[in-house]
Every structure is written in structure tokens, then in C-alpha cells.
Write a structure and sequence with these properties.
This protein is 59% helix and 7% strand. The chain is built from five helices and two strands; from the N terminus they run H-H-H-H-H-E-E. The protein has a two-stranded antiparallel sheet with strand order 1-2. The chain is elongated. With 147 residues, it is mainly α. It has helices at residues 5-39, 43-55, 62-77, 86-96, 103-113; strands at residues 118-122, 127-131.
Length: 147
Amino acid sequence: MVPAKEPIAMKTHRLGTLCIPLVLFAWLGSSMAHAANAAVPGEKQYQQDRQVCLDGSSNQDRTTCLKEAGAARAAARVNLLKSPDARTLKSNAMKRCEVHQTQEDRLACERLVSGEGTRTGSVAGGGVAMELVTRSTAPVPAASAPR
């Protein structure tokens, strides 16, 4: 009997009609999710940082690198990573000099912050050493009377 084939063709046609919108919806959904992730603050930078961690070109071990990349992304999401202007950076550096107890040490710190002195080393090499050489003359002790 031939009539049995007709309902099967209809079911296939209906299934095909249903599959196209589902596939289209899934494709659009993944595209929109990708676009939404790109709009999340710090996501693009995180993906770049993560890639650096995974390909081994970071100066850190993989676990630490991935943790820091994730922390930077989290901070960017709450808008903590703002690029301060030069005035703010200088002000913050000067505030760090307030920890010194003597006026002499505080002034030396402020001079280093202002760019005086020499700098050697690098962050990648383990640290930057800053040195400021100051010369002062000591008071001459009073001459003692001969005995």
C-alpha cells in the first residue's frame, strides 16, 4: 500500500522544518554569548593573559599565572583596574614615603620617587634596585685640651 509512505514524508518534512530553527537558534545563541563575553570588562585581556600562561611565555609557573590572570579579570569586572593619571601615581608614591620616621629618610625617598638616583635590575629579573647617594659632612669634634 502506497498511502503509508505519505505520512512518513510529512513527519520528515515537519522534523526538517523544526530542525532548521533549532540549529539556527543554537548558532545565534552561541554567537550572542561570544559577543557578550567580549563585552565583559577584562575578558579580552584575560583571554590574552591566559594564552600567555598556557603557551609558557610567562615568567611565572602556569598555576600562578592563571590565578593572577583570573584575579585581574575579576578586578576588571568590578571596575577596580583604572588607569590612574600621572598625578595620581606620583601622589601615591609620595604617600608611600610617609612611612619613613626621620625627615632625612623621607626626603631621600621623595627624591627617589621624583626620579633622582640610579635604577638597576628589572621586574622579570627579580626586582629593581634604586640608589640615591648623598654626601654630608659630619661636624668636626671639638678639639680636646692637651693633657
